[in-house]
Amino acid sequence: MTRSLLFRTALLLLAAASAPLLAHSFKSGGLTIDHPWARETAQGQVVGGGFMDIRNAGKADDRLLSATSPVAAEVQLHTMTMDNGVMRMRQVKDGIVIPAGQTVSLKPGGLHIMFMGLKRPLAKGTKVPVSLRFQRAGAVKVQFAVQQAGAMNPAAKNHAGH
Amino acid sequence: MPDTKPAAPRGLVTLRAFLWIAVALVTIMGLIAWLGDSRHAPPAGVASRFGGPFALTAPDGTTISDKTLAGKPYAIFFGFTRCPDMCPTNLARMARLRQKLGADGMKFAIVFVSVDPGHDSRDGIGKYVALFNTPIIGLTGTPAQLAGIQKGFGVYVKRVPLDAAKPDGDYTIDHTAATYLMTADGTLQSIIAHEEADEMALAKLKRLVG
Fold it and tell me: Which chain A residue's Cα is nearest to B132?
């Protein structure tokens, strides 16, 4: 009896500890945020970019309205486009729609969240807490895994089992 | 064996030749008129060659110019440290391609020129280029020096407010995302577009150091 309880407790603790490592995804209702990641920044650099996949398994469209993070004065939603060889970055007005049953990817060369006014550099190997605010799902707290400056993909995606 | 193709009548040949000469003449006259317009003519005493001359400052304070870079090919790219997407993507790619070149990788220099003198300090640029784990020459200068090199390379640079309602607030910079490959004598050899595949870019770099 005691042994069984101990075993269960241990199992529970193990599950709790390993869950974020194994999944690195965050759920709220029908929404799943997969592999949020950011690029490391240099000392003194005040902006940084963050990326993620947002899956909407629900029956209704949702919309990413805004985000906040304790590491930045402000977090903005941006889009980057190439126009005749010229790079243009713009704030996304009215948020990012996540259509029902679809996945929207924030990735290099397209959409990103931009950390503005970083209070400390985004250091490789650390995690950055971000609170995403959706129209329907409300606030979703996630952790952005910081990778090297020029990374193109979340590292976790490349490892089986994660 | 006689040629079975019917020969064009002599008159038509003459007319064709005359028309081509006319096209050439009009082109030359147009070019002279265009250059004669003071807006297009290079200022007196300035070489009109692509890219140079320019003189900018490295993070350690040394002056880097088209003359100091001469003798080794270089890949030059314009960007700013507050660009979280395209600039790191491009610099990381140059670092990756340099690695792929193996022993030839260090036969060309990678040069990053800031287009944001309002935000990017010398020190900030130095720390930024150090993120990419390969030697990259980060450069900045006075607004006039930067305007000069942008003009030399034909680079488009435009400050745009991040919030249209606050024209004096924080800004981003629209800018040309190409990497210019310059030979050891400072001549443009080719251009790598940002959207270009790695294999194509690698082939161009091989030619640059070959």
Answer: A149
